[in-house]
Design brief:
single chain; alpha+beta; 5-stranded mixed sheet; 3-stranded antiparallel sheet; binds zinc ion
Amino acid sequence: MEILELVKKYGTQEQCIAKLEELKWKGKPVCPYCKSETSSKRKGSFRHQCRSCNASYSVLVGTIMESTKLPLPKWFLAMFLIINAKKGISSLQLARDLGVNKNTGWYLQKRIRQAMNEDDQILNGLVEADETYIGGSLNNKHEKLKKKRGYNISGMEHKTPVLGMIERKGKIVVKVLNKAWGQEIKPILKEKLAKESELITDGFGGYKDLGKYFSNHVILNHTKKIRKIGIYHTNTIEGFWSMLKRAIIGQYHKISNNHLQDYLNEMAFKYNYRNRKDAFNTLLFNSLKI
Ligand SMILES: [Zn+2]
């Protein structure tokens, strides 16, 4: 979708409400409080009056857009801009593009990233898993502090470990770790991967003994330069890492560790929907569930 089309289709509050009602209720409003399907439309507003419990509600109850005074066309435009910014868009830029103050820009980005979290899915089939470290550009303050404490600047201690799991020709899930070790990695893999999956990893010790849990565990010994055995390789996840690192260069100083998981959710969502026309609709739909 192009931006002109977006403005034409969702340029008014009415158009946005109609779209959300269609996505959420398919034309039949359901009371969020008592689940009754009998209601009457309140005149001159977007609210419905429940005939069972007498509450009034709109499609926004229980969504990320509830309790904001921001017009819905701005929410829609914010989602559009975030989806279309390949390397991400700063909340300040978002605020400028939407004509809102910087706090609102920050709030919008945070809530929309929450709707991009598709954490509930289970991966299956051939699944590549790999860990990497994100970050590394120390600012001066940290550098001085580290020197003072005698840390090795070239070490990994200032980087954040991240675990990625990607279904071959499917979706990716990325998780921030406290530490890249088996104690943390294994429970995540057991939770996110179906037992029937074939897991593919390198020889890192954190993946040890997972063969008995999944239907297969193919370990590629990268240190012995074994990168591929037939269909088994980790090129897909490595491709995602290089894309992610290119995107982060030049803007990582704005992503604190607290926001890294949100940022990764955004990048994963965009990767998962990169060639799909339903990215925007999916994001709208997800935003109704929160
Ligand atoms: Zn009700």
